[in-house]
Amino acid sequence: MSKTKYRSSHRSVFNLTVHMVFVTKYRRKVIDAQMLIELKQVFESVLKAWNCQLIEFNAESDHCHLIVSFPPQKRLSDLVGNLKATASKTMWRKFETNLSKVYRKKVFWTASYFIASCGGVTVDTLKKYVQNQESPSQ
To answer: pTM of the predicted model, to two decimals?
Structure first.
């Protein structure tokens, strides 16, 4: 059985992990092998600047998956916005010839995204743990 790896900051010990999915605009199949490598580098760089960690990354031609560990003081919506904006700008800077064949404007991602918490234990297990705490008697 593997032990949970906790991270710590000045005021907290945490293990917060999320699964993110970003989809290309109009679900166009634009991500190729070179873009995949570049996207991973961009995401790793942004996450490092935010004191986050990229646990896993992969993509298909029209969307990508990230599993990210993040500290509790970071707002996920801001992190997602920074990841998508930086990746979009980088993709256009490095692959403009390819992307301009598919898109009229400098877009890369849809405005929406998927995010779900993951890791640790199930909610039922956690509920049982909390319910079984030794409450002070009245």
So the answer is: 0.87
